From TrEMBL:
Protein name: Hydroxymethylpyrimidine/phosphomethylpyrimidine kinase
Alphabetical GO biological process terms: thiamine biosynthetic process
Metabolic or biological pathway, per its Swiss-Prot or TrEMBL entry: Cofactor biosynthesis; thiamine diphosphate biosynthesis; 4-amino-2-methyl-5-diphosphomethylpyrimidine from 5-amino-1-(5-phospho-D-ribosyl)imidazole: step 3/3; Cofactor biosynthesis; thiamine diphosphate biosynthesis; 4-amino-2-methyl-5-diphosphomethylpyrimidine from 5-amino-1-(5-phospho-D-ribosyl)imidazole: step 2/3
Domain Pyridoxamine kinase/Phosphomethylpyrimidine kinase: 32-275
Length: 289
């Protein structure tokens, strides 16, 4: 079982604000008009964890709790212009990427974040919970080559870990092997292989190239898991923006997503969204020391 503790609520000090250390996180991702996944989930999560959120849109996705009906990718020039708008003005302490649909879009994002001295959290979004492909199948190669080596931490689910490594990832041993390949062969700084798609406890595996850390919570029996991956990685980004260590950030994110799944409202006719406010029910539960 994962340890849980009651923790202090985070507020920046006067000094931190003066030093421009108010935590700021940026998400670069697609949309979910029903608010459970994508940019919307990321911004809600940043806000809940008391981090100032910024967002750059990659694609507009017509989706709801039942599935995806249409996708419109923004022009490359518009993606580049948004990156310029943000980076010429406000420097984030953490950058998270979610859905980036094409190799060309990935190249643009990679070229802009390469030079940034900031934590980069990559959620290698490929397929929605509904089974709909959110990125070009050919773009997986670009994801591996251009973006993944820049990542402080990458957060694949099991099918994404399989696509990245080219090997089946079904068991805990497979997760360990995949984690090693993702860090040592593909060049990510660290990885959390998420076991949300396994049977039994919700088992995630963190690996930083030196040691493994297992994050285990009881599986919640619900179909309302739309946006779990987005929310989890956004929570890691928020905690890193605040300056917490990687392992602390991952532990807090796990606690945050557990509560969000535990207290869903059953919204929508399909796989409903998680409850981004649920951590408030357990005072300070999702805050780091
Ligand atoms: N039914 C569940 N009960 C508890 N935790 C879950 C459940 N489903 C997913 N999680 C957790 O949510 C996070 C996202 O995992 P996952 O669903 O595998 O990602 P994705 O949304 O990218 O497919 C992980 O921490 C995972 O363990
Ligand atoms: C725009 C966008 N990005 C990502 C997801 C994946 O959602 P999940 O976290 O359920 O895998 C999604 N459905 N839509």
């Amino acid at each position: 079982m994962m340890e849980s503790s009651i923790k202090e609520i985070f507020y920046p000090s006067e000094e931190e604000i003066k030093m421009n250390r108010f935590p700021v996180a940026l998400t670069i991702a697609g949309t979910d008009p029903t608010g459970g996944a994508g940019i919307q989930a990321d911004l809600k999560t940043f806000q809940e964890l008391e981090v100032y959120g910024m967002s750059i849109l990659t694609s507009v996705v017509a989706q709801n709790t039942q599935g995806v009906s249409d996708i419109h990718h923004l022009p490359l020039s518009m993606l580049a212009a948004q990156l310029e708008s943000v980076f010429s003005d406000i420097q984030p302490h953490a950058i998270k990427t979610g859905m980036i649909a094409t190799a060309e879009m990935m190249e643009i994002v990679a070229s802009r974040i390469k030079s940034k001295q900031t934590q980069y959290i990559m959620d290698p979004v490929m397929v929605a919970t509904s089974g709909h492909h959110l990125i070009d199948e050919q773009a997986v190669a670009s994801l591996k080559e251009s973006l993944l080596p820049l990542a402080t931490v990458v957060t694949p689910n099991l099918p994404e870990a399989e696509a990245l490594t080219g090997s089946p990832v079904k068991t805990v041993d497979d997760m360990r092997e995949a984690a090693k390949v993702i860090v040592h062969d593909l060049g990510a700084g660290s990885v959390v292989v998420k076991g949300g798609h396994m049977e039994g406890d919700a088992f995630d595996l963190f690996y930083d190239g030196f040691s493994f850390h297992e994050l285990i919570t009881p599986r919640i029996n619900t179909r309302h898991t739309h946006g779990t991956g987005c929310t989890f990685s956004a929570a890691i980004a928020a905690e890193l923006a605040k300056g917490y260590t990687l392992l602390d950030a991952v532990k807090t994110a796990k606690q945050f997503i557990q509560l969000a799944i535990e207290h869903t409202w059953g919204l929508g006719k399909g796989n409903g969204p998680t409850n981004h406010m649920a951590h408030r029910r357990v005072k300070g539960a999702a805050k780091n020391d």
